[in-house]
Amino acid sequence: MKFREFPINRIEWVTTAFLGTTLLLSLTVVPWFVWKHWGDPGAHWGFVGLLFLAFYIASGLSITLGYHRLFSHISFKAKWPVKLVTLIFGAASFENSAYTWSADHRLHHKHVDEDEDPYDISKGFFYAHIGWLLFKLKPMPPITNVKDLEKDPLVMWQHRWCHVLGAVFGFGLPFALGLAWGGLTCAWASLLFAGLVRTIAVQQSTFCINSLCHTLGRQPYSAEHTARDSWVCALVTFGEGYHNYHHEFQHDYRNGVKPWQFDPTKWSIWFLSKLGMASDLRRVPEARILAAEMNETRRHLEERLEDRTGRLSEATKGFREDSIQAIRAITEEIGRLAGELQASAAEKIEVSREQLSHYQRLVQQARRHLDDLLIPQGLVAGA
After folding, report:
1. How far apart are CA 33 and CA 35, in angstroms?
2. pLDDT-based confidence at 94, cuts 50/70/90?
3. What is the pLDDT of residues 295-308, one digit of tens each?
4. In the predicted model, what is the mean pLDDT of the chain?
5. How far apart are CA 139 and CA 371, in angstroms?
6. Contact predicate 279/76, CB 8 Å
């Protein structure tokens, strides 16, 4: 495309200027300030570090707990103080208002990997990560999918004053706290780190969900879309990295559904419910989750079986026929159990630990048979 043909009218100038300016300042002013004041006791670096952490958690959780799981997916209900705090510090993340953010995110789930997906990964990693914010490939449709949020006065108040709230609480508050704690040098350090660098860190971690979590990771629940589970992304996004699960069960208040998975947002919602500040926490029945895992495991086993049998010679196939038939029998059993689990979920019947153990044993058996197909390696065609 020639430069004169570039759709200049599609550039989001305000967003591009903000993201570009904050990045430039973080690469120039921040290193210069650290070099000049590193040994200066007036900078109070310990306080600045704690302030950065506090604002990172406050604004990051406001996006994951507030913008995402509360307002976009309505995975639980919250009292007004929770809404107010997440709306204020969500604005301080400079990711637009909860109203606009939720509208984009609901479109993403409705049209994932399609042209209508606002951050469609099929348009490229850069576009899904940040490009969709810098320029629009086509005019955005009118917002029609957040009628419920339009009835919430707090959400609409934040929508009107989002940028002012962001400036006051995202930049003004860290500066004021630093000034009160240690004077002007501490104030500037607080502004640069708890304000500027923290904003970039929260934004980039959020953007990784749209890009990395649609590129790298596992798909234990479904391969029908590009969403993936990434424990690495979960570490920096307060549990949002378990994206394959989330796309299958978007209204669950949990993303890291397994007990060992890192999901501070889930723990925070649960804790708020114990304080009486959150209620109606939505959970997908264990049977539905297990059925999805089993169906995806069955599909994966059948795919691997076809691939491995295709690499065997005709003579070797006959020699390995017992293993092949055993795998096919196991995949049929997994499919049958998945059907039973789906029926149990529909009737709200709890899944027993025995069923879970049986499923795990079946998968282990199938994997052992798959490994046996190409052992010894000399039996592989062409080896």
Report:
1. 5
2. very high
3. 887 777 777 777 76
4. 87
5. 52
6. yes
SS (H, E, C) the chain: CCHHHCCHHHECHHHHHHHHHHHHHHHHHHHHHHHHHCCCHHHCHHHHHHHHHHHHHHHHHHHHHHHHHHHHCCCCEECHHHHHHHHHHHHCCCCCCHHHHHHHHHHHHHCCCCCCCCCCHHHCHHHHHHHHHHECCCCCCCCCCCHHHHCCHHHHHHHHHHHHHHHHHHHHHHHHHHHHHHCHHHHHHHHHHHHHHHHHHHHHHHHHHHHHHHCCCECCCCCCCCCCECHHHHHHCCCCCEHHHHHHCCCCCCCCCCCCCCCHHHHHHHHHHHCCCEECCCCCCHHHHHHHHHHHHHHHHHHHHHHHHHCECHHHHHHCHHHHHHHHHHHHHHHHHHHHHHHHHHCCCCCCHHHHHHHHHHHHHHHHHHHHHCCCHHHECCC
Instruction: Tally Cβ neighbours within 10 Å of residue 142.
Output: 7
Model confidence at 379: pLDDT above 50: no
Q: Are 231 and 244 in contact (CB under 8 A)?
A: no
Q: Sign (positive/negative) of CA torsion 371, 334, 222, 67?
A: negative
Residue 24 CB: number of other CB atoms within 10 A? 10
Residue located via tokens 């310990």: 46
What's the pLDDT tens digit per position in 190-228?
999 999 999 999 999 999 999 999 999 999 899 999 999
Place of tokens 């723990």: 267
Total-model pTM: 0.86
Q: Which residue has the tokens 């795919």?
A: 303
